[in-house]
Amino acid sequence: MKKFLVILGVLILAGLVVLGVFLATFDVNRYRPLVVRELERALGRPVKLDGISLGWRQGIALQFKGFGIFEDAATRGEPLIQVEVASALVPLRPLLRKEVRVSSVVLQRPRIHVSRDAQGRVNLLGLAAAAAPAGPAAAARPASSAGQEAVSFSIASFRVTDGTLHWTDAMAQPPAERSLNRVDVLVTNIAPGQPMDVEARGALAGEAPNVHLSGRLTLPSPAGGGGRPIPGSDGSLEQMRFAIERLPLETAFPAPDGSPQLRGTLTLSLELGAMTLDPSQALRGLSGHGTVKLEEPVVANLNVLRAVFEKFAMIPGLVETLDARLPASERAKLAARDTVLKPIECSMTLDGGVLQFKGLTVQSDTFGLDGSGSVGFDGTVDVRSTLRVDPALSAALIRNVNELQGLANDAGELEIPLVVHGQAQRLAVLPDLQYVASRILATKAVDLLGEVLKQLEKRAPSDAPQ
Q1: CA torsion sign, 232 to 233 to 234 to 239?
Q2: What tens digit of pLDDT does each residue of 438-450 get?
Q3: Most exposed among 67, 144, 218, 416, judged by the fewest C-beta atoms under 10 Å?
């Protein structure tokens, strides 16, 4: 028995030596054109691959260098995904049991391009390629036929180091580009059709990581375990927590010089879920709830109150009259270039790819604003609210332009329905002019009627009945 164990040990050692020599001398790179052709056939898009190497590090170590997937062969523009180095480690023993167990997959310095065209279609192929390290062959593996044992597949860990996620949006006006840099991702417990644990972080509009994501992800897959089809298996997100910490809006959403722009430091926390990751429905399928906080908010290059009064065409020369008649301190408030706001904090929900706000309160030194609104992933802002001018300033405005009296509420505040609409870097302030005109005209009518009655009273005989 002892001799048998010795002989068996020698044979195993010899086998490992032979395997090591084979892996060290085998030129796998000569199969690179074949690998490229198979990848292009599976993806239906051009593929670039600079080199392949095979080695042994407590398992079969496979490495791809200079890997990229392009949108089309004609333009060969920015790749959907390009990876400087992609490596995988596959233990040998599970292979003997027809189990492909990958210990680890590492993508070093990948650059992933995600885009949305003018029709709203989102191209997630680059992201899917990075998130499916099993490769197209594994994803497209046919179901085993009768009498054949299925080959199981799993990955213990998938890691991305120092990556970049580039987003281009042709649907936004003007077209927008954003980059999430220094992306680090760790995904564990990966198997076809099974939920996996995800942790990710990156830096947006700065060098320090300020975007964090964690939760469970199930990737879209045409087949589940054992190759059995799963109808409608489009992937999902569960228990996802998404956070942005102190994001400078003016850097994240730059605007042309002199254009109105919302500035400040944004902190956001969301709990997310999605029943589908189908590219055509990915953004619309997101739902969740959370809180948002904006510190040091400023509407740059726009005096909101002045912009509102400039829309009052029913009172010709209103702004000019106020500039001429108001006291210096009140006139300065209307002449300020920017609108400085107090910190904003409110709860929100995410539905259909749009952040919805209720109970939104905004306060400045000249007005308060209460209402609700939404912000889309394309940066579109739509806030419907009621603007109430500070009582002291309202009194000064009414003293100098009596027609404004019709807009005053019981507290003496000028009250104006208002819509703030546009892109974050191109905001427009739109008062409800129909409401304003009706109130001002009503005030004028009352004043005119009072004047007529006074004239009639003066002309009537002293003994005439009232």
Answers
A1: positive
A2: 887 766 555 544 4
A3: 144
Query: In this structure, what token pair is assigned to residue 62?
Result: 């496979």
Confidence of residue 147 (pLDDT cuts 50, 70, 90): very low
The helix/strand/coil state of 302 is coil
Alpha carbon distance 387, 309 (integer Å): 12
Residue whose tokens read 């120092």:
162
Take residue 135 and report the two structure tokens written for it.
């490769």
The helix (H) or strand (E) run that includes residue 1 is none
State both tokens at 365: 């030194």
Residue ranges covered by each domain of the chain: 20-135+152-233, 239-434
End-to-end CA gap in the chain: 132
Q: What is the dihedral of CA 347, 351, 353, 356, to 10 degrees?
A: -30
- Residues 248-283 have pLDDT tens digits of 998 888 877 888 888 999 999 999 988 777 766 766
- Choice among 106-120, 204-218, 222-236 with the minimum mean pLDDT: 222-236
Neighbours of 36 (CB within 10 A): 16
Q: Say whether the peptide bond before residue 279 is cis (omega within 30 degrees of 0).
A: no
Proportion of the chain in helix, strand, coil states, percent, rounded to 5: 30, 45, 30
Q: What pLDDT is recorded for position 226?
A: 46
